[in-house]
Each structure stands twice: as C-alpha cells, then as structure tokens.
Amino acid sequence: MENSRTPGHPFRVLADTIAAKVQRGELKPGDQIPSVRALAKEYGVTTATAQKAVKQLTDDGYVTTVQGLGIFVADAAPEVTTDQPVSLSDVMRELDRLQEAVTALDQRVQRLESSDAG
C-alpha cells in the first residue's frame, strides 16, 4: 500500500499548495479559505480529495473548520516538530492560546448574529 503522505497524492498536493500559501503569508490567520466544493472545483479534484486535503491541513495545524461558518487559516503556523518531549507548561500555553482563539471566534459569531438580527 502506498504511503498517504507521498507528495504525489492529489490530496497531499492540494494540502501542500494551501500550506505553502499560509507559509508565504498569502493566506493570513483568520482568512477564510474556499469550501470543500469550491476547492475541488478550483483545483480539479473530487470533493473527497478536497475533504481529505482539508483534514490533512487541520491535522497539520494550518486551518481550523468551524461547523456552519467555514474553513479558516489557523492563528499560528504549525511549529516544526522535534524529537524533544513536550512539557506540561508547553501544553498549558497551547491550551490557553486555543481558548483565546475560541473566545475570539465566539465574539465574531456573536457580532455576526447581532448584525443579522438588526
């Protein structure tokens, strides 16, 4: 069986293309990327392939998916992993960062909902 991380896989090519845009700053934290269907159409792949690419980007820390709102570039680019063990304080800092991101997103949603109601 072929390794799913092989660069030639269509989902991997798509994921790498989007990740490169994030790394170059073409896509910035908080930017919304196209839907799975739109990505599939734009890059000429199936929706299943685009979905797999989005999952890979999520797993790699490049994007986050918010149900009902879309796919967004993550707040921070993923750090290069090392063989060094992760400390509890590192985990706690990351959890704090994620909580701040969730709070900020919640505030954005509330603002959008209140503007729709008005």
UniProtKB/TrEMBL annotation:
<feature type="domain" description="HTH gntR-type">
    <location>
        <begin position="8"/>
        <end position="76"/>
    </location>
</feature>
<dbReference type="Pfam" id="PF00392">
    <property type="entry name" value="GntR"/>
</dbReference>
<dbReference type="InterPro" id="IPR000524">
    <property type="entry name" value="Tscrpt_reg_HTH_GntR"/>
</dbReference>
<feature type="coiled-coil region">
    <location>
        <begin position="88"/>
        <end position="115"/>
    </location>
</feature>
<dbReference type="InterPro" id="IPR050679">
    <property type="entry name" value="Bact_HTH_transcr_reg"/>
</dbReference>
<keyword id="KW-0175">Coiled coil</keyword>
<keyword id="KW-0238">DNA-binding</keyword>
<keyword id="KW-0804">Transcription</keyword>
<dbReference type="InterPro" id="IPR036388">
    <property type="entry name" value="WH-like_DNA-bd_sf"/>
</dbReference>
<dbReference type="InterPro" id="IPR036390">
    <property type="entry name" value="WH_DNA-bd_sf"/>
</dbReference>
<dbReference type="GO" id="GO:0003677">
    <property type="term" value="F:DNA binding"/>
</dbReference>
<protein>
    <submittedName>
        <fullName>DNA-binding GntR family transcriptional regulator</fullName>
    </submittedName>
</protein>
<keyword id="KW-0805">Transcription regulation</keyword>
